[in-house]
Amino acid sequence: MDGFTSWPNDLVARYIAEGYWSDRLLGDVLRGDPGRIALVAGDERLTYADLDRRADRTAAGFHRLGIRRGDRVVLQLPNTASFVVVFLALVRLGAAPVLALPAHRHSEIGYLCELSQARAYVIPDRHGGFDYRELARSLDVEHVVVDGDAAEFTALASLDAEPVPLDRPDPADVGLFLLSGGTTGLPKLIPRTHRDYVYNLEASAEVCGFTADTVYLVVLPVAHNFALACPGILGAFAVGGTVVLAPSGSPDEAFPLIERERATACAVVPPIALLWLDAATWSDEDLSSLELLQVGGAKLAAEPAAQVPKVLGCVLQQVFGMAEGLLNYTRLDDPPELVETTQGRPLCPADEIRVVDPDTGEPVPEGETGELLTRGPYTLRGYYRAPEHNARSFTPDGFYRTGDLVRRLPSGHLVVEGRHKDQINRGGDKVSAEELEGHLLAHPAVHDAAVVGMPDPMMGERTCAFLITRGTPPTLRELKDFLRERGLADYKWPDRVETVDTFPRTPVGKISKKELAARLA
Ligand code: J2J
């Protein structure tokens, strides 16, 4: 695929020879007994046979629409059975889903459709008080497929056709695109091949002890790498387990589902873990089925980490992952000290780790903090169609510069100590400072903007925009309305605005975000 950077031949040979890459395809992950429940979503309960059939029939429907192997389709559905059916249908067809989050709006989706040259865009009619058909009307895309009331578009229900023989994808093909958290003005797409993502989900399922008895509850957006494949729904399907989709991580929605479905495993971000620790002390629901709580996306502090087994009665696993690839997990039998105070160690023996001085690129002495660089059998070698950005994000020998500052312990476990990238981690949601600044600068009263993170006890960080204004400074409320108008996802909006006369500068004349952040601490 044009715009996709593959691994060099020697590493391809090595990853195959060492058994990390197989011929298994993403469309073949449904490995449960046909009669067993694969998926519970709202009132729907689908067996493996049901899900398999629906995926095949929907693949045939997309094929009839003209979607073919190698095409791209932007998929923006919430945590519903339709997400799972459409995802499986597309990967079986060899058409790569581009996984947008439900929170994305015109700014993100318009760009994704254009960058990926998507042939179709799949949406709900309405969700969370937003009409996605309105968004679709503002785009230029060949097919809009709607789950629900389709209006002038194609109803997902109409893409139900007699299965046809399909051209099988190659394991080396790009199977899907994930969205990068982003550090630049525009979002980046992460190509994931069938074979690297199959490794990702199968090896994760093994490390997390998933079996046919696993009942995996999804509370994060299922389109996010963590809930999708770490081990996520795909890992649960691959071992014949059951997946239960919840609309959110709120204890009033998640706890009754844990009790009713006897959920055994779940992945959350730290703010949800904190909410659960609190709610578990007063809720009546029976959470005793829960065996494993995975926490990742942002750093979990040692104190709440120590509380998880005591209060929720389950094993805690810290997960330090990224859509770009590398996954670090604490292991289920690690001593409590490591589980509480580290963010895990790499999933794969072939994951290569370097910890370097971010300015010189030279390795730091063992045990000291530096920037994490990595390459391996499931870490990208380049963002899709982004040559200039790739030149900065990768070393000449193909290591991905994560922008995370870590310290490595003798056991190989990593401790995340901070960040060397212009991004705010808002409770696991990533906000690119440059992207938000670009939108703020478009406001007529904004002369200059600098976005920084501010510490927050629940979210870890929130977003503060420092502005130099002309005329009357806009209020936070006005800025949010402005950003809504521009179609920017709401989790990227600032939580606070500070107007200043000048920005502090570094010796080389750049805005000192360190100094700005210090004013907030
Ligand atoms: C500190 N920072 C963390 C952690 C991610 C599993 C889990 C998370 C993600 C994810 C994921 C962190 N402590 N435990 O894809 O499969 C920050 C780092 C990292 C960035 C990646 C998965 N876990 N982070 O969060 O692509 O800064 O993936 O580089 O959204 O989140 O963000 P994202």
Description:
The protein has 521 residues and is α/β, with parallel strands linked by helices. It has a domain at 423-519: 2-Layer Sandwich (GMP Synthetase, Chain A, domain 3), CATH 3.30.300. 30% of the residues lie in helices and 26% in strands. The protein contains 16 helices and 27 strands. The strands form 7 sheets. A 9-stranded mixed beta sheet has the order 2-1-13-12-14-15-16-17-18, sandwiched between helices. Helix 2 packs across helix 3 (81-93), helix 6 (194-207) packs across helix 8 (232-238) and helix 10 packs across helix 11 (302-312). The radius of gyration is 22 Å and the shape is globular. The mean pLDDT is 98. Pfam families: AMP-binding, AMP-binding_C. Residues 31-384 form the AMP-dependent synthetase/ligase domain. Keywords: Ligase. Residues 435-510 form the AMP-binding enzyme C-terminal domain. This is 2,3-dihydroxybenzoate-AMP ligase.
Short description:
Helix content is 30%, strand content 26%. It is of the alpha/beta class and 521 residues long.
In whole angstroms, the N-to-C terminal distance is: 46 Å
Judging by the overall fold, what is the CATH architecture of the domain at 423-519? 2-Layer Sandwich
Low-confidence stretches: none
Rg (CA only): 22 Å
CATH class of the domain at 423-519 equals Alpha Beta
CATH fold-level assignment of the domain at 423-519: GMP Synthetase, Chain A, domain 3
The backbone outline, from C-alpha atoms, is globular
Structural category is alpha/beta
Total of DSSP H or I helical runs spanning 4+ residues: 16
Sketch the major β-sheet. 9 strands, mixed
Strand content: 25-35%
How many strand segments?
A: 27
What is the mean pLDDT? Answer: 98
Helix content: 25-40%
The strand line-up of the biggest sheet is 2-1-13-12-14-15-16-17-18
Ligand species: ligand J2J
CATH fourth-tier homologous superfamily of the domain at 423-519: ANL, C-terminal domain
